[in-house]
Design a protein that fits this description.
The structure is a homodimer.
Chain A: H1 17-38, H2 40-49, H3 70-80, E1 96-99, E2 109-112, H4 114-130, E3 138-140, H5 152-160, E4 163-165, H6 173-180, E5 184-187, H7 189-201, H8 206-209, E6 215-218, H9 225-235, E7 238-245, E8 250-254, E9 261-262, E10 268-273, E11 280-281, E12 287-293, E13 304-313, E14 325-331, E15 336-338, E16 341-343, H10 345-356, E17 362-366, E18 375-378, H11 388-399, E19 404-407, H12 410-414, E20 428-430
Helix pairs in contact in A: 1-2, 4-5, 10-11
Keywords (chains A, B): Plasmid
Chain lengths: ~425, ~425
């Protein structure tokens, strides 16, 4: 085991990979058994597939176990009335019950045991600690508490002895920030856009409003290195990228090396699969990320399909952490194949930003009936000094594909100025 | 010290009053000193009044110390820029910062130390325990987390080993309740009205939707004994009354005796004052309630004006608790004097409900310029078998005043059916 660096919260983050993998392998059989015994969904699926937990002999067998998706959970709940959709045996004393947003129907209920909350808080504390949070650091969290991480964000801050700030997200947020003076926070694109607009409206600059800020996590949308550096200037703070799935209790974060997001492999096994065939892919290939939880008492997630497209790299990171890194590329439904090449909107975003040095609204338009190839709509900036033809040529050459690029307007994609923020429209659309 | 009853969480709840008062008296001098040293507002006010913490010799001196109100806090913040309005020395490691809703301007920031959170959680646990919550009991809290009690509601549940449920308050709440099956919860009038409407819309009865519910706290509006018993039938659960001030960390709750709300006097000193003169009143007289906190590390509340009108009774309760009980009557601005008699809307509410056995929308209309006496608008129920004259006579005779009663319609007071709930309109209005 290596000696923890000063920005390493938990010694397991720098443990030898062989030790990490050995730990995963030791825990996996009991996790598979637990899911089968406690969760009706796993029992149903494993029985239907003719596999049993006893068939799992070694890591190589993991890929033979059925994959589980949220749709399967919904169907199981509808069929059986089990409020936890076959993922949990129910609540224990001291448990908390929360749920997803329920935007797509009945919210998915989630059970967390006291130990579960400690685990997620440790995971979050390691993020905060990496970014320099120490005793007394002011951490502002805008996270909605109605997801499985409820309670764990403040708990993570308290583990460090930091100060936890829960702001009012109302229109007074610009004024509040001047009082609250957070040093660490995170932001989704919409929040930052909104804050920027509110600051401008009151005649202030964002870096002045966020004067005290040292660290900001960016989540919810692809962030290219170039965009990150521009955003750092705008905000006046170091920006890290984060990802995660609240309901699974999974959080990933970039580190000082700014090269992918570390995943706590003592807590999760990550796989990559072909989203169509479900077949395992090798590390480094872009595919759907699949997670198996190694710690959860309340819920069972074995081979849980994330709906996220990404790449996993397990070679050592220059920051000293030995855990694998995730490079998020987008959502499964955004996958677009052009000339046999997988094109994700984040890649397009990156190229457009690189050429014009500004956010360029665009939309990858696929053929709903397969009758024509995909094409790209780009709201070419009038002050960008670049034509749609030049932009198109660059995009095609960098992606290595032939892709028609058509000019459009920002209004057409985003709506009238000020009505919506650019992140609200779909970057990939079927027409 | 008496032996704790089975529904008593903390032995201090049944301690001899003499011991309780002695404990208060022992702590008060250091609380007054702390407020003066840490909170700029107290220093300013005490200096202006020519008093100092050293002048406090005994309990009889408490009434000589300046009263503090939220308006004073706002003014101090505006004047000095102190984000905590002179009530706090600032944050400590492990602190959390939250705030009020900010509906009346800049939100009031609140600091809670780790010990503060434990204290409030103990106070809330004693409420839950009194109502029968035990290991595994499902407690559903709909409380907004953006007030000072953030984190303490689930913490209280966890202290008991109960299960904490944080529901989605969206339109799916009726369906959710069938999955969540809470045994303990609380409700503000609007929530219950909304739930009732949602249940009716889906063809269900409220007591069926709340099938699992055993205990419900009612807060935010006066509840008469008659109304309580009717509501119990409707909901199918025992109803307790609760009150409190999230920002002060104060929670009061009725007990098995259903006769006033107990206040943890090991944590708070409660006084009654004449809201106009600020002069102390004797226990049992209706007046503005004033609270001094005996425990708070993060914030200082010494003689804090609550804006609430109530009565304090300190004689023993049949439940065995020795703490004083609060009988809430309404808000200070709702005080209406008719023929020299203080009339609070809750009293009118009570009489109307008693006579008609249903909720009767009404409005006490005062004269903005003092040119005429107050009168009462009543939406006399068409199926109530009672005329406006008969209702008026009963109201006047029970209140011991001459008060003109005029008929009005529910729509005129509440708005068109379904658009608003009855609790949203002002029960007292100046015209």
């Amino acid at each position: 085991m290596s000696v923890p660096d000063s920005d390493v919260w938990n010694a397991v983050e720098t443990v030898d990979r062989s030790e990490l993998i050995a730990k995963q392998n030791a825990v996996l059989p009991e996790r598979i058994e637990k899911a089968y015994v406690e969760g009706g969904l796993y029992r149903k699926m494993y029985d239907a597939a003719g596999v049993s937990p006893g068939d799992y002999g070694s890591r190589a067998d993991l890929g033979r176990l059925p994959l589980v998706s949220k749709d399967m959970v919904r169907a199981f709940r509808a069929e059986t009335g089990d409020p936890y959709g076959g993922l949990s045996s129910g609540v224990v004393p001291g448990a908390s019950i929360s749920h997803g947003s329920g935007t797509s129907g009945t919210p998915t209920l989630q059970v967390s045991s006291p130990a579960d909350r400690e685990t997620v808080a440790d995971e979050l504390a390691s993020m905060f600690w990496m970014a320099g949070a120490r005793e007394g650091t002011r951490i502002l969290t805008m996270q909605n508490f109605g997801v499985r991480v409820e309670l764990t964000l403040p708990l993570a801050a308290f583990k460090i002895g930091a100060v936890h700030i829960l702001p009012d997200l109302g229109s007074a947020s610009v004024d509040q920030l001047e009082f609250l003076r957070p040093e660490v926070t995170w932001a989704y694109p919409g929040w930052l856009d909104g804050l920027s607009a509110a600051a401008a409206k009151s005649g202030r600059k964002l870096d002045a409003v966020l004067d005290s800020l040292e660290t900001l996590w960016w989540g919810g949308r692809y962030l290219s290195p170039l965009k990150r550096s521009r955003l750092q200037e705008q905000v006046g703070a170091t920006i890290y990228e984060m990802g995660g799935m609240g309901d699974v209790g999974l959080h990933t974060s970039s580190c000082s090396a700014q090269d992918g997001m570390h995943i706590r492999e003592d807590l999760f096994v990550v796989e990559t699969i072909d989203p169509d065939s479900g077949q395992p892919l090798t590390d480094g290939s872009p595919g759907e990320l699949v997670f198996t939880s190694l710690w959860d008492e309340g819920m069972n997630h074995v081979r849980w399909r994330s709906d996220d497209i990404g790449m996993v790299k397990s070679e050592p990171c220059s920051c000293g952490r030995t855990s694998a890194r995730i490079f998020q590329l987008g959502r499964v439904w955004e996958r677009t194949v052009v000339d046999g090449v997988l094109v994700m909107p984040g890649q397009v975003d990156d190229i457009l930003y690189d050429v014009t040095e500004q956010d360029v609204p665009f939309q990858l338009v696929r053929s709903a009936d397969g009758s024509r190839p995909a094409f790209l709509r780009v709201a070419v900036p009038s002050d960008g000094g670049v034509s749609v033809d030049d932009l198109g040529a660059t995009v095609c050459s960098r992606l290595g594909v032939e892709l028609e690029v058509r000019a459009t307007t920002t209004e057409e994609l985003v709506g009238s100025a000020g009505a919506k923020y650019a992140h609200k429209y779909a970057q990939v659309k079927d027409e």
